[in-house]
# Entry
Amino acid sequence: MLKLDAIDVYYDGLCALSGVTLQVKQGEFIAVVGPNGAGKTSLFKAISGVVPVQSGQMSYNGQDLSLIEPHMRAELGIAHVPEGRQVFASLSVKENLQMGAQTANARKALTQTLDFIYGLFPRLAERQTQAAGTLSGGEQQMLAIGRGLASLPKLLMLDEPSMGLAPTVADQIFECVQQIHATQGISVLLVEQRVGEALDSCDRGYVLESGRVIMSGTHEELSRNTDIKKAYLGL
Ligand SMILES: Nc1ncnc2c1ncn2[C@@H]1O[C@H](COP(=O)(O)OP(=O)(O)OP(=O)(O)O)[C@@H](O)[C@H]1O
Ligand SMILES: [Mg+2]
# Structure
């Protein structure tokens, strides 16, 4: 459904992504792992249209993404849950979720979607009227994912959902992501520094370093790769 072919992204002449080629097929769970500054967030921003792509091609279900305005990419079913959660602090949990439902279809389905989100994250259900800024880090991450789900995505992009969370809370978030993928038929593109967990969950993965894809493969191939074990898993 999503195809990137030799994408370059520059910031003021500095290269953040170089020749990145990547594919997400319908229903796949894809992990992108790599160290700080590798270009993971830039990759997501390029896909959602927050930063321009200097060269290369991006297509979504056969449509040239460069011809589609960023806000229309959400209409096509691309949801970007940003790094650092970025919830609307002064708005309530419910208002944040409502903000996720921008398209006509998402608004129509909102009551049903809210039931689903609250089922997935009971802690949000208990805190519907609480200001998002007063939620714990884990709850804010649940809210950020919930807001992404409220747009009825076909492709859910999650940028480091475990960042800054205690291991047990991060594990809960991972389990929810796996559940969303397994039950909703949504494709998931996950960026993570928790390489072991990300590779455990994914169908396929890409390793990004200094803006380049240095390795890619299936879950099995990457999990038994000795370079990855040494560099990322401390084994
Ligand atoms: N707005 C910007 N202006 C200039 N340089 C930027 C900008 N955003 C990112 N960069 C640079 O691009 C490179 C890739 O950054 P990016 O945020 O994509 O990495 P990342 O893999 O997401 O890192 P992290 O794991 O720390 O989130 C870095 O060298 C960063 O300094
Ligand atoms: Mg990042």
